């Protein structure tokens, strides 16, 4: 995505649903435009009345797309991650087939969205708060406060808006079971915590990021109980500690995962991965460095992506 994911503002949205289902006849903004039962959902922009079982959903970011697909909902429209990748590659092709592309994440086409006649729009305030008035005139618009770090709370809000609370519980129960299984395979909580893991991201047009504790991938690592080296506590706002190629040795750990966003040369990946500093890191010398898919590990943001990441962690982490 053109704008990097940042840690959530302090005091992220606490997800709750509201009140009993009622009949809806209003066509006012952020009300279901057609008759039928509906419910209120508390969002970052206030209470929004949503159709109990929306059938034409438009999602405007990767987290919302992951949530919908994971909950068995095929949106009628979605934004693309960037001009090059479109819908993220880790998503099953059969699940995204037929979804209409309504523009880039940060510049969705309002006319394209309206043409799909949605009965629900899912996004976040940090992405599209400035477009809320326009979006809510098209369909009830449910916004979380932000994206990334509070992905689990956001997923619950998405589930409430989609009328998929029961399905959401099944998803989270299965995820928790996979977490327990992976932690056990690593030798238990104590051994997992003793293994220090870092995630490095090479980003075109930016410094190299050593990911801190307050971002999506960090929460997955924390769920497994993996340890993190002290450098992560220097991360700005908990999100990332940014370094130049000349300081990449600060990213050393027992295991290092690295992802690249954009052109490897322009993102400094080619330069850094070939440098003596990188090759001298203990993780590299021990063969415990792994290239991972940026779309999955960084951009996905949801239980669908997290489940695939757990599978990869199980294959790559030493036991």
Number of helical regions: 14
Strand content: 15-25%
Strand tally, please?
14
Ends distance: 34 Å
Main beta-sheet strand count, sense and barrel state: 6 strands, mixed
Mean pLDDT: 90
Q: What percent of residues adopt helix (DSSP H or I)?
A: 25-40%
Strand order within the widest sheet?
7-6-5-4-8-9
Secondary-structure element pattern, one letter each: EEEEHEHEEHEHHEHHHEEHEEHHHEHH
Q: Decide which structural class fits the backbone.
A: alpha/beta
Primary descriptors:
21% strand; disordered N terminus; alpha/beta; 319 residues; 14 strands; 35% helix
What's the topology here?
Layout: E1 17-23, E2 37-43, E3 46-51, E4 57-59, H1 62-70, E5 77-80, H2 93-96, E6 100-104, E7 107-108, H3 110-115, E8 120-124, H4 125-128, H5 132-138, E9 141-144, H6 151-162, H7 165-185, H8 189-194, E10 197-203, E11 208-211, H9 216-224, E12 240-243, E13 255-261, H10 269-273, H11 276-279, H12 282-285, E14 289-291, H13 294-299, H14 303-316
Parallel strand pairs: 4-5, 4-8, 5-6, 8-9, 10-13, 13-14
Antiparallel strand pairs: 1-2, 2-3, 6-7, 10-11, 11-12
Helix pairs in contact: 1-6, 7-14
């Amino acid at each position: 995505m053109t704008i990097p994911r940042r840690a959530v503002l302090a005091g992220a949205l606490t997800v709750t649903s509201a009140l009993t289902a009622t009949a809806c006849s209003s066509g006012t903004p952020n009300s279901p435009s057609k008759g039928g039962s509906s419910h209120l959902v508390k969002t970052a922009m206030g209470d929004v009345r949503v159709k109990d079982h929306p059938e034409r959903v438009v999602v405007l970011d990767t987290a919302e797309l992951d949530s919908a697909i994971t909950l068995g909902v095929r949106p009628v429209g979605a934004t693309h991650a960037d001009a090059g990748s479109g819908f993220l590659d880790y998503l099953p092709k059969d699940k995204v087939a037929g979804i209409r592309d309504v523009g880039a994440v940060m510049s969705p086409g309002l006319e394209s969205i309206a043409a799909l006649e949605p009965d629900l729009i899912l996004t976040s305030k940090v992405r599209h708060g400035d477009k809320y008035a326009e979006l809510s005139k098209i369909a009830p618009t449910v916004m979380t406060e932000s994206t990334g770090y509070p992905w689990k709370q956001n997923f619950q809000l998405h589930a409430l808006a989609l009328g998929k609370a029961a399905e959401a519980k099944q998803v989270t129960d299965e995820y928790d079971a996979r977490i327990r299984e992976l932690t056990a395979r690593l030798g238990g909580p104590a051994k997992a915590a003793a293994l220090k893991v870092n995630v490095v991201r090479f980003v075109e047009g930016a410094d190299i990021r050593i990911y801190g504790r307050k971002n999506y991938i960090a929460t997955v690592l924390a769920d497994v109980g993996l340890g993190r080296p002290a450098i992560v506590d220097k991360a700005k706002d908990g999100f990332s500690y940014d370094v130049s190629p000349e300081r990449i040795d600060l990213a050393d750990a027992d295991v290092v995962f690295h992802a690249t966003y954009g052109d490897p040369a322009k993102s400094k990946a080619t330069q850094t991965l070939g440098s003596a500093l990188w090759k001298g890191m203990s993780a590299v010398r021990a063969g415990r460095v792994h290239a991972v898919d940026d779309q999955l590990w960084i951009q996905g943001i949801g239980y669908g992506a997290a489940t695939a990441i757990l599978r990869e962690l199980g294959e790559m982490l030493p036991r």
